[in-house]
């Protein structure tokens, strides 16, 4: 388990350099006392491990920019990958003081060693296109969702895909959560396109997306809390947590209406990764106590498997 006495830790993602696993995570000081204040103080921390169990915290990866910039208030969730030039790229979410933390944009930093990071630009790489995506001025949601970029190469070598937590500009307010989408041929210039899922699936937002191919079968993970489920889902007694969607292909489209829950919201932000034995496991952050208090630490690896019904499951679930 990864936890620190000084900070809460929550959303996270990995990079694997072949020798060590690198854990990138959101962190904020426990001196804030109230964990709800952590979002506006978030920076991106960094830890390393050889086994996904024992972690050593190292220097933070990224902190907010000096203003004015799209990320001068806080730096939020992202993903890391190695490009064809062997440089590592960290795609991340930024929120700014001018927008009072309510306007989310995607930026990028680069590194040669996964330790020292340099921003590519003080301008965002992608932002929501109003042809398809809700904006803050629409007044349908507390913020303008465009965050948690998951970037991965096209399986056929045709460029790069970016999946984003976003909201459509149509449909009931509590069902506008969609998989936002952008493409690139060089990891530098991105074209935002229409979402890869439909509004009306019963989710206000799909947080911290990941696509993986586990034992030859493609699956997408996302998280959604009870409060962000649609009124209809809550009326059926559904509650939030970590969700999975079985896929025909990694690049979508994604049938989010067919999502099923992997774990309740005591855990959040499930991330799939292969350990050194080649076994697929999931880590998550410990979110809520039985009494509803925030925890803020990351679990040990939990093996996953496909059950007889063709659904991904945690071995302990």
TrEMBL record:
- Give the stretches traversing the membrane: none
Domain of life (superkingdom): Bacteria
One term of GO molecular function: hydrolase activity, acting on glycosyl bonds
| InterPro entries cross-referenced by the UniProt entry | Fructan_Metab_Enzymes (IPR050551), Glyco_hydro_32_N (IPR013148), Glyco_hydro_beta-prop_sf (IPR023296)
Q: Does the keyword Hydrolase apply?
A: yes
Q: Which UniProt keywords apply?
A: Glycosidase, Hydrolase
Hydrolase in keyword set: yes
- Domain (Glycosyl hydrolase family 32 N-terminal) ranges: 19-285
Q: Which CDD domains match?
A: GH32-like
Which protein family is named in the record? Belongs to the glycosyl hydrolase 32 family.
Task: Supply the name of the protein.
Answer: Beta-fructofuranosidase
Per the UniProt record, the source organism is: Kribbella caucasensis
